[in-house]
Design goal:
mainly alpha
Length: 250
């Protein structure tokens, strides 16, 4: 308990320090269009919270990006199982997944913009960025399963179902959870970037682009704060769900 309190105090002190630096820089520059003050950004954010456009944009962006993320987790896990158990599939798909993982997000956004409807493009980009990450982590988990335990399972004839639940799943679970938590951040950032470029109706990215186009810098900062807060919230919700799952399983 004391450690948690100490962490909160340290976090609050760090936040106060950087907000103070921000306020001093804003006062020094003296131009809201270049660097608005924290108070101005907070005021803008408060005003935005009272509009239907804000909540509609947030809701639809979440729906698009989380849809792509969930699909990526399912497909990435399935591909990991297939490629670890079938060598020809691994040889065929592995180079493609590595290319997707290494290439810049902006390249895929621009290419996909030509072929895919703007309303689903953010979901597709989130999907594309997360699939290789989940695939690589789950593959590593499967390959690092203790061979001695598998041998024991064969000796005692546990069967496929018990071997899966008692050996394979516990071995893969840490890698899978790590992929899900890391992938969520990737999905959110890449999805918002796609929205900024393709401008789907009622989206955070479109609001960010419009604020930038009209030189509404406080709004740009306010929407950026919203993106960061939602990213932290999503991560916290996922970690809480994982902890609850562990508690129930124990």
């Amino acid at each position: 308990m004391q450690n948690k309190v100490n962490k909160l105090l340290v976090g609050a002190a760090v936040a106060v320090f950087w907000i103070t630096v921000w306020a001093l820089l804003s006062g020094r520059i003296g131009e809201e269009i270049l660097l608005p003050s924290p108070a101005k950004v907070l005021e803008t954010l408060w005003t935005m919270w009272g509009t239907a456009v804000f909540w509609r944009s947030v809701a639809l962006s979440l729906l698009r990006i989380l849809g792509g993320y969930i699909a990526a987790v399912l497909v990435g896990t399935l591909l990991a199982v297939l490629t670890t158990h079938c060598r020809p599939i691994h040889v065929l798909l592995s180079p493609l997944l590595h290319i997707v993982r290494a290439a810049p997000v902006a390249s895929f956004i621009i290419l996909a913009y030509v072929w895919i409807c703007v309303q689903i493009l953010p979901a597709f980009i989130a999907f594309l960025m997360v699939v290789p990450l989940v695939w690589a982590n789950v593959c590593e988990g499967i390959e690092n399963t203790d061979k001695k335990l598998l041998e024991v399972a064969r000796v005692f004839r546990l069967g496929h179902r018990k071997t899966l639940s008692l050996i394979h799943l516990p071995s893969v679970r840490p890698y899978f959870i790590a992929a899900c938590t890391t992938g969520l951040g990737f999905a959110w950032k890449s999805g918002i970037a796609a929205e900024v470029i393709c401008n789907p109706a009622n989206s955070i990215g479109k609001q960010l682009y419009s604020a930038k186009a009209y030189l509404e810098t406080p709004e740009v900062f306010a929407w950026t704060v919203t993106v960061v807060l939602l990213s932290v919230l999503l991560e916290r919700v996922l970690l809480y769900a994982v902890k609850r799952r562990k508690a129930v399983s124990v």
